[in-house]
């Protein structure tokens, strides 16, 4: 059964950094483009970044371009999100999922950017 377990969130001051990780289960991870999404309170879930199956093609939302970096380790079924220069607007619950099959979601990990 497809499952995602996200971790690494927390409370950080503006300008700080966090690294999120997501472990995937139940499918052939190396065959799928993966993505990170986020949902702020009262807003719809939005795509933040995605990475192809080989890890050599990435795409980012304009709001995070130049600050966030997505990566993956196919040997560990893991996709990560390095977040630098965090802003209060980055506050949200962050989720990972398969880019083309957004049918299963984990519990997410809360990121709060506040002084």
What topology does this entry show?
Elements: E1 3-7, E2 10-12, E3 18-25, E4 34-39, E5 46-51, E6 58-60, E7 68-73, E8 78-83, E9 92-98, E10 109-113
Parallel strand pairs: 2-10
Antiparallel strand pairs: 1-3, 3-8, 4-5, 4-9, 5-6, 7-8, 9-10
Quick summary of this structure?
This protein is an all-beta fold. The protein is built from no helices and 10 strands.
Written account of the structure:
With 115 residues, the protein is an all-beta fold. The chain is built from no helices and 10 strands. The protein has strands at 3-7, 10-12, 18-25, 34-39, 46-51, 58-60, 68-73, 78-83, 92-98, 109-113. The strands form 2 sheets. The protein has a 6-stranded mixed sheet, with no helix packed on it. A 4-stranded antiparallel sheet has the order 1-3-8-7, with no helix packed on it.
Mean model confidence by pLDDT? 97
Q: Into which percent range does the helicity of residues fall? A: under 10%
Give the low-confidence spans: none
User: Order of strands in the sheet with the most strands?
Assistant: 2-10-9-4-5-6
Major sheet size, sense and barrel closure: 6 strands, mixed
Strand content: over 45%
Along the chain, the helix and strand elements come as: EEEEEEEEEE
Rg (CA only): 13 Å
- Span from first to last CA? 40 Å
**Total number of strands:** 10
Number of helices: 0
Principal-axes shape call: globular
Structural class: mainly beta
């Amino acid at each position: 059964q497809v499952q995602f377990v996200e971790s690494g969130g927390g409370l950080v001051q503006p300008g700080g950094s966090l690294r999120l990780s997501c472990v995937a289960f139940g499918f052939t991870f190396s065959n799928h483009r993966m993505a990170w999404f986020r949902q702020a309170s009262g807003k719809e879930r939005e795509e933040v970044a995605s990475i192809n199956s080989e890890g050599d093609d990435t795409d980012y939302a304009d709001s995070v371009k130049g600050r966030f970096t997505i990566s993956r380790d196919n040997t560990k079924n893991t996709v990560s999100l390095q977040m630098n220069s965090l802003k209060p607007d980055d506050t949200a619950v962050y989720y990972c999922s398969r880019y083309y099959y957004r049918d299963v979601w984990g519990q997410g990990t809360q990121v709060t950017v506040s002084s």
